[in-house]
């Protein structure tokens, strides 16, 4: 199978795989899938170290995160080699999507965690004799299950946040790219975090299932819609809180007043970044007829100049290449025209511009995850919004216009997790804001202050300040007390006093 070859099981019956690099199909090593017993042992180690970690002051946790950051910068050239051999992606993409992004997450949350997680003390509008505080307490052990398309950042970003919030973490990375995620465990250990606090469990879907069966206190899952449904069901049965970051079919709308040169560059970058294997990459483009010719011509010129190997890498996972090829061939068979590209080239797919696509073709409705730009000409922005929303996914979207206020108004009408005006593929990197999908693109969100808090249980503690002998609603329920409630409703909410509440 693709870049992963099954080997015969070990003497304890555990599944084994050999991993081949997508760069040149060289053997990069083999691994044994963690069995349910291995997962349980890792869970026990995590449960043993987590309580002391939860007691460690946030500033001390953050100081260790700064150690990890320094170590990552020192080791980046070595890590780069492993990340590239695991994914085949370009040096440029590996540096900014994996290394730079991780440095930023470590520093951003490390420097802010003590503020974001400090107790809230809201004043109480009704129960005025009580004092409230909300403590952000760690969940316990967090499971992180991650995909192959960003194997380091998508494993380490939730881990950094969960650890700063006081949790232990068990990571089950994609079996397709195991070596990238394995770096996360050694990085945390070598930076001085307690042994067992961050552990990587290599394995396939069955190992992921065993991890959920081991009852973590929260699951942070990133992957496909189908697997998301399966793990969501399982978490539902076990009542494990989970965030599901799933697939997308991000629309890009080119208005008649788009800043054309920038829009052309952004459309090409948004569609081809990571060879299209990016959850929130541009997957379909709607261009208003008035500017369609100029836009399409500019896009074709730019895409035709893209060099395989220099600008985009091969496919990380071979079956994805088959899926992309099928979507392009099906579209062409149904009347679409290829203006450039259109073919498989070894383990690459040529960057491809498709026109004369229809709203019904898979290439416009299903996740492609490849370097394809299907462009559909629309009469006006209203038609573009209608088509963009008529989709089962809702991860991201982008709009290009010189009228930024109009762009924002249009953005508020798109059923997408996030909207970008005059740029592409930047939402995950804006750490101040939540990142998550609507519709089938996911449940919950990561990043932002709430992303960090979501690795905690927000525990309110209510303290009575005055301590009278009894409260007005305590037993016995006398006619006077019933009358008191009636009067309270009338006096407070039936009069202007309610404006003070
Ligand atoms: P996938 O769903 O095949 O696998 C994701 C992870 O789930 C892997 O680690 C896999 O081993 C594990 N898994 C599989 N079956 C499981 C089971 N039954 N129980 C528990 N774990 C199981 O996804 P993929 O092909 O690795 O990744 C590509 C997909 O991820 C694309 O759809 C992409 O859009 C999506 N993605 C989404 C985001 C986001 O933030 N929304 C980010 C990156 C990728």
How many separate domains? 3
Q: What ligand molecules are bound, each kind once? A: nicotinamide-adenine-dinucleotide
Number of helices, counting only DSSP H or I runs of 4 residues or more = 15
The averaged pLDDT comes out at 97
Q: Which regions contain 5 or more consecutive residues with pLDDT less than 50?
A: none
Strands in their spatial order, largest beta sheet: 12-15-16-11-10-18-19
CATH topology-level name of the largest domain: Aldehyde Dehydrogenase, Chain A, domain 1
Which radius of gyration do the C-alpha atoms yield?
A: 26 Å
Q: By helix and strand content, what is the structural category?
A: alpha/beta
End-to-end distance: 64 Å
CATH class of the largest domain: Alpha Beta
Architecture overview:
- There is one protein chain.
- This protein has 501 residues and is an alpha/beta fold.
- The chain folds into 3 domains: 4-246 and 448-457, Aldehyde Dehydrogenase, Chain A, domain 1; 250-440, Aldehyde Dehydrogenase, Chain A, domain 2 (3-Layer(aba) Sandwich); 469-500, no CATH class.
- It contains 15 helices and 22 strands.
- It has helices at residues 36-55, 58-87, 91-116, 153-164, 178-190, 205-213, 225-238, 260-272, 289-304, 318-333, 362-365, 381-389, 404-411, 448-453, 479-493, and strands at residues 4-7, 16-20, 27-32, 130-138, 141-145, 168-172, 198-200, 218-222, 242-245, 250-254, 282-288, 337-340, 344-345, 348-349, 352-355, 372-378, 393-394, 396-400, 418-421, 438-439, 442-443, 456-464.
- The chain has a 7-stranded mixed sheet with strand order 12-15-16-11-10-18-19, with helices on both faces. A 6-stranded mixed sheet has the order 7-6-5-8-9-21, with helices on both faces.
- Helix 5 links the parallel strand 6 (168-172) and strand 7 (198-200).
- Helix 1 (36-55) crosses helix 6, helix 2 runs antiparallel to helix 3 and helix 2 (58-87) packs antiparallel against helix 5.
- It is globular and about 80 Å long.
- The N and C termini lie far apart (64 Å).
- Residues 145-150, 154, 172-175, 204-205, 208-209, 222-224, 227, 230-231, 245-248, 279, 367, 369, 395, 437, 442 line the site of nicotinamide-adenine-dinucleotide.
């Amino acid at each position: 199978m693709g870049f992963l070859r099954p080997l015969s099981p070990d003497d304890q019956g555990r599944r084994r795989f050999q991993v081949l690099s997508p760069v040149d199909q060289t053997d990069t090593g083999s691994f044994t899938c963690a069995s349910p017993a291995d997962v349980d042992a890792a869970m026990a180690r995590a449960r043993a170290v987590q309580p002391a970690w939860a007691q460690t002051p946030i500033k001390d946790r953050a100081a260790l995160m700064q150690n990890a950051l320094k170590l990552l910068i020192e080791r980046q050239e070595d890590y780069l080699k492993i990340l590239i051999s695991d994914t085949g992606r370009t040096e440029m993409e590996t540096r900014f999507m994996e290394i730079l992004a991780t440095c930023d997450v470590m520093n951003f949350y490390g420097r802010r965690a003590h503020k974001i997680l400090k107790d809230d003390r809201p004043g109480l509008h009704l129960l005025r004799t009580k004092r409230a505080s909300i403590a952000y307490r760690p969940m316990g052990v967090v499971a992180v299950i991650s995909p192959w398309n960003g194997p380091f950042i998508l494993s380490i970003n939730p881990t950094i946040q969960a650890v700063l919030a006081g949790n232990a973490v068990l990571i089950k990375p994609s079996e397709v790219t195991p070596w990238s995620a394995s770096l996360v465990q050694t990085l945390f250990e070598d930076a001085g975090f307690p042994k067992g606090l961050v552990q990587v469990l290599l394995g396939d879907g069955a190992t992921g299932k065993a991890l959920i069966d081991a009852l973590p206190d929260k699951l942070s899952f990133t992957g496909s819609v189908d697997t998301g449904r399966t793990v969501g069901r399982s978490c539902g049965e076990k009542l494990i809180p989970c965030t599901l970051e799933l697939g997308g079919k991000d629309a890009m709308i080119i208005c008649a007043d788009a800043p054309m040169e920038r829009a052309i560059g952004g459309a090409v970058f948004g569609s081809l970044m990571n060879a299209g294997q990016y959850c929130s990459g541009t997957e379909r483009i709607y261009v208003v007829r008035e500017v369609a010719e100029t836009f399409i011509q500019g896009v074709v010129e730019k895409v035709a100049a893209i060099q395989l190997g220099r600008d985009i890498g091969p496919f990380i996972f071979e079956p994805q290449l088959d899926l992309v090829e099928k979507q392009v061939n099906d579209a062409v068979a149904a009347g679409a025209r290829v203006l450039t590209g259109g073919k498989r080239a070894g383990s690459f797919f040529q960057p491809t511009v498709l026109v004369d696509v229809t709203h019904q073709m898979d290439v416009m409705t299903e996740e492609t995850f490849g370097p394809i730009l299907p462009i559909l000409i629309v009469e006006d922005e209203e038609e573009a919004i209608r088509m963009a929303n008529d989709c089962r996914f809702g991860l991201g979207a982008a709009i290009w216009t010189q009228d930024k206020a109009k762009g924002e108004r249009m953005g508020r009408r798109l059923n997408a997790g996030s909207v970008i005006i005059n740029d592409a593929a930047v939402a995950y990197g804006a750490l101040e804001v939540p990142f998550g999908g609507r519709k089938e693109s996911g449940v919950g969100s990561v990043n932002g202050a709430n992303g960090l808090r979501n690795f905690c249980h927000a525990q309110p503690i209510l303290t009575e300040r005055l301590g009278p002998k009894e409260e007005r609603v305590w037993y016995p329920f006398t006619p006077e007390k019933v009358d008191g409630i009636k009067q309270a409703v009338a006096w407070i909410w039936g009069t202007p006093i309610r404006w003070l509440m």
